[in-house]
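Chapter summary example.
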Amino acid sequence: MTYRREDSAGYLVNWAGRLFTRAVERRLVSGGAGPMPVYFALRNGCTMTQRDLAVGASVEQPTMANTLNRMERDGLILRQPDPDDGRSMLIALTPLGHERARQALDAAMTVNALALGGLSEAEREQLFALLRRVIAALDADSTETPPPRLE
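The structure predicted for these 151 residues follows.
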């Protein structure tokens, strides 16, 4: 069997994701799409810990820490002590962060409409249903015990 990346679900989904990110970034006034998971998680006035943001975005803690440090430097988030856990900080968007979150959501909606514009409503529903099944299968695999490391 010959491997063809054009027939690889992983390759095609990754490629589509990269193109989606580039299209969104072209529409953003400033900054890239890196903080989008933070924007979406906090846009309705929510506060969350760094750990919860990292889990929700499916990124490692150091990656989220770097993203939040840049966002804090740029005036997009505030950190405040968690009253329920003295070792933890709660993250919230600043007014500028809320404006950037609105811009990011607008850009994402525009790109979604562009990407799905050639599909019928039934095809969109089928695409989303199939992607949710793929995600569920991969998510289930990620929670299983990893195979032993070979040395």
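To summarize the output: The mean pLDDT is 89.
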